[in-house]
From TrEMBL:
Residues 224-399 form the Peptidase M16 C-terminal domain. InterPro entries: Metalloenz_LuxS/M16, MPP/UQCRC_Complex, Pept_M16_N, Peptidase_M16_C. One of its GO terms (molecular function) is metal ion binding. Residues 90-215 form the Peptidase M16 N-terminal domain. Pfam families: Peptidase_M16 (PF00675), Peptidase_M16_C (PF05193). This is Insulinase family protein.
């Protein structure tokens, strides 16, 4: 309570002199980064037409177990002749060696660069010829993949995925080409204020914990990653015991079971993961200033969040929407953009991982108005922490969440992504049916308690841009 009062009492209408905190250089930590291997315009159009309502999906979700024991959440839908599969392996970038961040990211970029008896060029030609979309990405806790194809191309699509997972080449020429691309991105990030702010925020929030490392590595770590490092990662992480699968599309259960066994059956049965400790994000308030000579200052702000398993998660999710997650209707958007014109946009989200959670917001503004912008954000954060939302705001937010679920799950691809996320979050298979009731159950007292918990201590803030003196000049 003392910290909450001190934070709110310390806010005034004057500019903050403490913005001249020391700064350090850093780059973006992408919590979810995907690289598309191949996707034709025609396939993209078909994917957009694959519609299924959440109520239909809830009634159709099957817990499928293949003859070989591969489990999947599955919705059979013949609306259009295509199949969307999302899958993940436990591990993610948190399994990178401490001194070699970026291994999981490189693996994701290289799995489709030649495998089995196909070199990189031939592999991609096969994808392009059949309009197959295959992609991989590394998040903090999972190594994620997507596969989308027309129904008639399913055998070839699943076989290409099998080869990518079980016999990647990691040829020297391909490794160095992809490494060069990653390094170019890292160099660009050193002058990108949004990337700098994101990395610094996570560094402050998580310190030396794996969540504080950037997924795509560092300029001094990526050159040291060897093929042996990547093969070791594949052997430890891409295993059946950490596999979760969601499939939506025009395929019958028996056929899908055979495809899953063919694709994943040869993977090692057990992984060898390093234990990752739980961690609470650093306590606010804290502020860091990163000097960068750019016209627009970027502000990233946040603090400890609420884990998905927390019984008060939905209350936090709803009240966060009211403060900063509701687009044009959020408090921050109204105060920062509409009333004062300080920034083009401002938003905030809850991020939850397996071992921690944060809320994180972002905005950009003219360098000489950064102080005013931050003042407004801090005042709104303090106000909702002390007073909570109004009943009207709560009712409108709950109505939005119940209505928007239809749009969030309106294609087979979106539904497959949601079903995979529900599995990762350890939610029940009928969660789609239960979600609106969970939203409805959030009371005004719940929302007020969640607001105080999230924002009562203040913010972790990172400002990237010109110094106040330079901005004034």
């Amino acid at each position: 309570m003392a910290r909450e009062e001190a934070f709110c009492d310390g806010i005034s209408g004057q500019g903050h002199h403490h913005r001249q905190a020391r700064g350090e250089a850093f780059v973006t930590h992408p919590f979810l980064r995907a690289r598309r291997a191949a996707l034709s315009v025609a396939t993209g159009a078909v994917l957009a037409l694959a519609t299924i309502s959440p109520s239909q999906a809830a009634a159709k979700i099957q817990h499928l177990i293949s003859p070989g024991g591969i489990e999947a959440w599955f919705v059979q839908d013949a609306t259009v002749p295509l199949i969307a599969m999302e899958y993940s392996f436990a591990g993610g970038s948190a399994q990178d060696l401490h001194d070699k961040p970026g291994v999981a990211n490189l693996v994701g970029d290289l799995l489709d660069e030649g495998s089995g008896d196909l070199d990189s060029k031939t592999f991609h030609e096969r994808l392009d010829r059949r309009a197959i979309e295959l992609r991989f990405s590394a998040g903090p806790d999972t190594f994620h993949g997507s596969l989308r194809m027309l129904r008639d191309n399913k055998d070839e699509a699943f076989d290409l995925l099998r080869m990518a997972l079980t016999s990647p080449h990691f040829d020297t020429a391909d490794v160095e080409r992809i490494r060069s691309q990653v390094m170019s991105g890292l160099r660009r990030d050193t002058t990108n204020p949004t990337s700098l702010a994101s990395r610094k925020f996570l560094e402050i929030a998580f310190g030396d914990h794996p969540y504080g490392r950037q997924t795509n590595g560092k300029l001094d770590s990526v050159p040291t990653i060897t093929v042996a490092d990547m093969k070791d990662y594949v052997g430890r992480v891409l295993t059946k015991d950490g596999l979760k699968v969601a499939v939506v599309g025009d395929v019958d259960p028996a056929t899908l079971g055979k495809l899953l066994d063919h694709t994943f059956g040869a993977l090692p049965a057990k992984g060898n993961l390093v234990a990752i400790p739980d961690i609470d994000a650093a306590k606010p308030p804290q502020l860091a200033f990163v000097p960068l000579d750019v016209p627009q200052t970027v502000i990233t702000f946040g603090g400890p969040g609420v884990k998905r398993s927390d019984p008060n998660f939905m209350a936090a999710y709803v009240v966060n929407h009211i403060l900063g997650g509701g687009g044009l209707s959020s408090r921050l958007y109204r105060e920062v953009r509409e009333k004062r014109g300080l920034a083009y946009s401002v938003s905030e989200s809850l991020l939850w991982m397996e071992h921690s959670a944060v809320f994180i917001g972002n905005t950009g503004t003219r360098a000489d108005r950064a102080g005013d912008t931050m003042d407004v954000i801090e005042k709104e954060v303090c106000r909702i922490a002390e007073e909570g939302p109004t009943q009207k705001e709560l009712d409108e937010a709950k109505s939005y969440f119940k209505g928007s679920q239809m749009l969030a799950l309106d294609t087979s691809s979106k539904l497959a992504q949601a079903l995979l996320q529900y599995q990762q979050d350890k939610l029940p298979i009928d969660y789609i049916e239960k979600r609106n009731a969970i939203v409805d159950a959030v009371t005004l007292d719940d929302a007020k308690a969640a607001a105080k918990r999230l924002w009562g201590q203040g913010l972790l803030t990172v400002i990237v841009g010109r110094s106040p003196r330079a901005a004034a000049e």
